[in-house]
Batch of 2 targets.
Target 1
Amino acid sequence: MNLQGKKIWIDVEEPKTGIMFKSLFQKFLDAGAELLITARDFDSTHKIMDDVGIKYIKVGKHGGADIQEKLKTYIDRLADLFPIITKENPDFLVTFGSVEGTRIAYGLQIPSIGFSDEPRSVHVSKLYFPYIGMLITPDCIPIEQYNALHATNDRIIRYNGIDEVAWLRHYQPNPDILKKFNVEPGKFVLMRSEPTFACYFVDKLQPDETFIAKYFPKMFKACPDQTYFLLVRTEGQERWLKEQLKEYLPNEKIRITRYLPNIVDLCFYASIVVSGGGTIVRESAMLNVPSIEYFPGESAPQEIWLIENGFPMEHLRETDQIISRCIELIQKGPGKDRFTDAFKKRIMDFEDPNQICYNYVVEKLTNIEK
């Protein structure tokens, strides 16, 4: 497939997008397309894009939990993107949920395609769905949830799988990560904080807080031989958690950080993965790692899909149950099929949403040529 002379604009708004689109970047480049990549300053997005090693332009930031600041940063990012896009004049927009990108593409009549696996993010979806040209969504999420937020069936592509398939299909475990952090397989826990600034989480916790402070002490007391990577999302969460756990610090067994490179490798070799958000536990479960989500709301369709398909995923909400189950899994130790490539065969049974996106863009641009 030949995309020579075509320019694809990819707007990256969150860390997951940088991880997920790595293979998609390469597909477009291999087809001869020029890439224009813009990336918002949010969580570890820029660091992940740096790790990917592809040229991008930093544009805008996340607005945090305050609704006025959210609106202001949206307006500012629109204003910053506009001159870039009018100058570069791309042929197509690809994104994972960029409200600003889709609005500009719609206004400038640039064809677009995007992904969505989180209709629970109601406010973003209402601003995103009406403007995106085509929307790629997992079969496991009821289409009615998208329809209710102004996405019509004729602009929705469904696929068998979840977004994490896009990068785990290409994943090869790299044991070098163990030397980098001086840990052994199955001898460390990876815990991820909640997205407390997300619209569906703002009434559960203050923006700088995390339930990790409740779960960690008893886990550490019961399993002190494990190393604990406590991965937070913001500088505020980092400060707050360090203050809450100050009696345990400093300790080489406890590492509180906002960023961990090669996070998929750390998931693969961990004893368990525990998170208040979905992406990291979904990918770890697909890697056959015991995974616990402690998000206080209803289980997302993706988590239900993982459980129904036999992946080691659990969604727990009660503090005592979360702690006891984590301790039980750690003390049980890795199963015989852990740390092998057995996970890959199962993943290959599902569709790759990146390939679906790539095929759609090529078809549309090729038809324009004709």
Target 2
Amino acid sequence: MQRKINMLLLLFSLIGAAVGFAIGEVVLRALPETWPSYVIIGVYFGILALSVGLFCLIAELMSPSLNGHSWRQRYTDLSWKLLVPATLVLLFVVGGALQFVYGLEFGGTKKIRDIVLVIDNSGSMTETDPNNDRYKAAKSLIAEMDKDKRVAIVSFANSAQLIQPMVNVGASSQKSAVYDVIDAIEPTEEGTNFYSALTEALRVIQADRGTMVIFMSDGFSDSNITEQMDQFRSKGIALHTIGLKIGYDQGTLLLRDMAESTGGTYYDVEQSDGLSTAFRSIYLTIDNRSLLSINPNALEEPTIYKGIRLLSFVLIGLALGIGLGIMFDNRFLALSFGAGGVVGGLTSGLILNAGLSGDAFTDGLFRFIALLVLAAVIAVFTLVIPIGEKTNARRGRENAAASPREGSGRSRNSRSSGF
């Protein structure tokens, strides 16, 4: 048992982390958005672990400083066989399970299940949206909604009307019924009253369910909406706003302020055929709480989720370290790498909690740094916890059986570090 380090393994573990990060980032963007987040995150960490494990195995084959030359001569076939289950499979399961837990509701947070669509039907819409693309966008959004989602629709001009009370849209027949309601909306020549629209939206919201509001208009309202905005903030409801062909700053500033003051996002749409993209972009942000990123359109991430992320990375680091030890069939390495994974995972989690901002480039950079730190700490932890080389346990037992009187030989062979 001794403390030592394989510098080549350290270098290759960093290369493996970088390669795993690059492939994982491509996977994050390539996998369908309809896939469950726990599957996507599980794949991400599985790929990372496989890449780190592969490069660490190659490093030990080139320079067997940790497992010894006897391992390279006798056990490399076993290590190759253990590579995939000890890295890809193990971390897919662990990462996916932790992401599933992270997606649950803790600390009073509510998963978004209700969506209120507030759609401008004032006279100016006949010019800015002559083809009724806003209604097509609403129907496209409803078509994508999962079975646990409900929708309500408010149409407004001088006054507001709840044309569709909150209803589940999980079944095709339910979606079709809402489409019929939307198709029946008649155009008006009236003005724009945000006060009435927001008041009607607040009436339909149920306090015990997570709700978001999508508010779409092409103009400005001089009505006083201070009271309504205070209610949205107090209820923790994000108000996402969409401005269509707004040619003056006053309308844009109002819609932007409405969104930002409630933790929502403002979308500026130049042409009405871009409304579907805006509606869909908003919808895709509501259920994507992730260990690897934060939602830029959501309210500030609750502290409890930062704690869960931190704990999750500790467990992911532990699983990665133990997996590498299993791959080498060396319990001493599993102990050393596992302890390093705990320390590295803790450090990586702190880096992510401090650095994640919702910006795609910045978040990617911090993920890269965090994964490099995790791999490096695991690789150097053999300097902290002493390890023993992998020896031929089977041959040792055979020799001991053949020479029972040689107590020293028996003692020496019993020191096998295999699992």
